[in-house]
Amino acid sequence: MSRIGLVARALRLTLSKAHADPTADYDAASSDYDTFFSPVMGRHSTAALDEVPVRPGDTVVELACGTGHLTAEIVRRLDGRGAVFAVDKSLGMLEVARKKVLPLVTGAPGLLVELSDGDMETFARGIPSGSADLVVVGWAICYAKPPRLLAQIERILRPGGRVMVIETRADAHKALTDRLERVFADDPSLLTSLIRVALPKSAAVVARWFAKAGLTIDVQREGTQVIPAHTPQAVLEWVQRSGAAAGFKTAVDNSREQLVLSRVEEGLAELLRRQGRLDIEHTFVIVTGHKPVSARDDRQGPQGEEVGVA
Where would you tag: which of 95, 199, 215, 219 has the fewest CB atoms within 10 A of its CB? Predict the structure, then answer.
């Protein structure tokens, strides 16, 4: 196994800007996401909303709404009054979200919901400054440059406006990621582009991103969800159909994808023989905060700026 070879390969891919796009993996997982990911990890997302919270009449921006699991919950908590502007880059995920969320708006003339396709940061730039009461980023800030995205979030929040981020921690699915690294180290040519994700090592890292953007921290905590997996096949099925392996499809040559998967499966089978178990540990962080209210903001009151997306 040559880690030096893998590092050299990664360096060449970095210099050539060969970066994997996770969109194809989320498109592929969109029909299964609410069967695999949402029932297991979605409850942690929903619980994180309690830390914010959502109030009727709020204007909410959701960056990377996925299949609309959190979007639907936000709409329910708005109770017929307010606005939700959500975006996702995966058309497959958005299709599921629209079918789930838009029926909830029927018969609620005081509620505006818009689901758009596109990049999170580009979308955020089109939102007027000081127009949002709450910004939510669920399982997706890792695909952006977090400090830069949070600076945009700080800009669009009203004074006192809240932000909630929930994200996978860097050590999640360690047995699987270790095995995948070994496969690429054995044959670096299998790697055709780099999966670039900014997974935080701890909640403290996300808190530092918040602070750098000028946001005040309210809550920072970490959690672990154990997902029982009795076979190597079950592990691979979960990570592929839950979106947890996002970026894999474009990081590996299509003609060699099955070869990589079979080698990973062999490694997991060896681990199962040694340990007698293959539980998936999905570690995550939750950080919430708010935009500080200055004395001037207190005197002026609500800004009253028109809300919309450019």
Answer: 219
Tell me which residue of 232, 227, 72, 211 sits closest to 150, measured CA to CA. 211
* Crossing angle of the two packed helices 69-78 and 38-49, in degrees rounded to 10: 40
Q: What is the pLDDT of residues 246-258, one digit of tens each?
A: 777 777 877 888 8
Q: What are the residue ranges of helices labelled H in 213-304? A: 232-241, 248-251, 257-275, 295-300
Alpha carbons 248 and 234: distance in angstroms, whole number = 17
Instruction: For 93-112, write each residue's pLDDT tens digit.
Output: 999 999 999 999 999 999 99
The predicted model gives 64-83 an average pLDDT of 98
Give residue 213's Cα distance to chain centre.
19
CA 221 to chain centre: 17
75's CB contacts (< 8 A; 6+ apart) are 84, 101, 104, 105, 111, 113
State how far the Cα of 161 lies from the Cα of 177, in Å rounded to an integer. 37
3-class secondary structure, 73? helix
- List, in sequence order, every residue forming a beta bridge with 217; answer none if it has no partner: 289
First and final C-alpha spacing in the chain? 51
Tell me, what's the pLDDT at 298? Answer: 59
